[in-house]
Amino acid sequence: MSSLPVSETQKQSGWNISLRRISQSPWTVIGSVVLGALCGAYLPDFAKSLTPISDAYLNLLKMVVLPLIVSATVFSIKSMTRDPQTAAYLSRVVLAIVVVSVGTVLIAGVATLLLKPGVIDNVQDRIELGTVLNSRGNIGTDLQMTLAPPSQAAPSEGVFSGLLELIPSNIFNSLSVGNTMQVLVFCLLFGIGIGRVPAATSISFANALETIYRACLIMTGWFNVLLPLASFAIIASQTASTGIEPLMLMVGFILTFSAATAIIMALSLLVVWLRGGESLWAIFKAHQPLFMIAIATRSSTASIPWIISLVGERLRFNRVVVEMLVPLHVTMLRAGPILLFVCGSLFIAQLYGRSLSAGDFVYIAGASILVGMTTAGMSGAVTLSQMAILCAHLKLPFEAPFVLFLTIDALTDTLRTLTIVSTIAAATAAIAPRDQAQHPVDESEEFALNVPEPEAVR
Question: Please, are residues 336 and 303 in contact by the beta-carbon 8 Å criterion?
Fold first, then answer.
């Protein structure tokens, strides 16, 4: 029999599939990251010129994230208000937040106290560290400075002073400025309200939300093709801006922070493995696209579609529950910032030789959890500045170490994002029920966030 001619449409479809597989391969993204770091180190001028490319890619991702959160949260809350187990899900969310937060504090605290990254015995290293601090401007100071409280202490705020920051007075203004916390509060309340509307009346609105959600997933699949180029541009521009000198001086803190991150990620993978019913290696492979997008974007919010696809589609947990839990966890489950506050405050205390009492450790733990839960939507520099709250209580200078932390923020922010997305995936898998209606996963099928079809998301 003569072979049938291949149509032009089939050829184009084959090229599209091959391009998606190459662009979404972990090795392609890792190669882009390594080349970006080399470019930033040896061709800094060219690397800085790539900043518009990285900014454009991040803006593309942010463009679809907010409508994705609104549509997924409202639709899921509306659906869950008719589910008698809603109260059980919400109570489990609170339990997950407590367990993950306390566990993060313990892991970060033990790792920092054992490895002691702030104890610098080499005199030459201390001189070089002080030189870096003092070269950054007038806020730099010698490491032997007197431990004195700040000259102008910030006015104390009440316990409920931040409550108004969570309630949007104008939801359209919150949407325009991208205030994720206020938008999420509105979506939760609006979803409950829609759930009280009779089903016959709200069905058309529910279908519209489903359409918006699916369209956002399709667009994120398109943007994923550009991931290798965006990874190269992002890493190159960041390396050209910060250089490698701060990395060499802060190697102890970086190793400690990396070790704590690795432990938390490993525990998170174990939780998903226990709930997922697949091999540990299959669970790790399923997480690879999520880890790659977290490394490239350093944004837990931009990783929402990948978390939903991982837990709700690849691992076959109940999609309605997953789509409700993930945006809520992104806002409230802040293991990454908590890890930074604990490790950072203990590092500064070790750096200046400050001995800590049991009450100081309790304060660091409690304050890190509370402050960490308020960091959703904050940039890296703003998140770092929140560490001043802990340093003020411990009577530690923060201005000079802040500059040092800022120079390595590109790396620590990446580790924070990896910690956040891995714990969110684990908490969601621990809470959401398995969807028994879906067919078993083909183990030979490699998971990738491809462009989803209207009837199903791969």
Answer: no
List, for residues 388-404, the tens digit of each pLDDT value. Answer: 778 877 888 777 677 67
pLDDT on residue 446: 41
CB 319 within 8 A of CB 456: no
* Separation of alpha carbons 239 and 40, rounded Å: 5
Q: What is the pLDDT of residue 246?
A: 58
Does 241 reside within a domain? yes
Rounded Cα–Cα distance for residues 134 and 139 (Å): 7
Q: Whose structure tokens read 């203990």?
A: 346
Residue 106 CA from chain centroid, whole number: 20
Q: Say what angle helices 26-42 and 227-242 make with each other, to 10 degrees.
A: 30
Structural domain tally of the chain? 1
CATH number at residue 333: 1.10.3860.10
Residue 15 lies in a domain: no
pLDDT of residue 71: 77
Q: Domain limits at 298? A: 28-149+167-431
CA distance 148 to 162: 28
CB atoms closer than 10 angstroms to residue 23: 17
Looking at residue 152, what is its pLDDT?
43
Which of 179, 296, 313, 235 lies closest to 38 in space, CA to CA?
Answer: 235
In the chain, % of residues over pLDDT 70: 69
Q: How far is CA 74 from CA 84, 192, 273, 381, in A?
A: 18, 8, 29, 31
The neighbouring-strand residues paired with 17 are none
Of 329, 365, 412, 268, nearest to 72 by C-alpha is 329
Residues in the chain: 458
Closest CA to 78 of 186, 202, 181: 202
The pLDDT value recorded for residue 127 is: 61
Instruction: Give the chain's residues under pLDDT 50.
Output: 1-4, 6, 10, 136-162, 438-458
Please provide the DSSP assignment of 157-225 as one string.
--TTTTSGGGS-S-HHHHHHHT-HHHHHHHHHHHHHHHHTS-HHHHHHHHHHHHHHHHHHHHHHHHHHT
- Per-residue confidence (pLDDT) for residue 198, from 0 to 100: 79
Domain contains 5: no
Q: Is 261 within the bounds of a domain?
A: yes
CA dist., res. 239 & res. 336, Å (int): 22
**pTM assigned to the model:** 0.64
Distances (CA, A) of 14 to 19, 29, 220: 9, 21, 20
What pLDDT was estimated at residue 70? 76
Q: Which two tokens stand for residue 241?
A: 């801006």
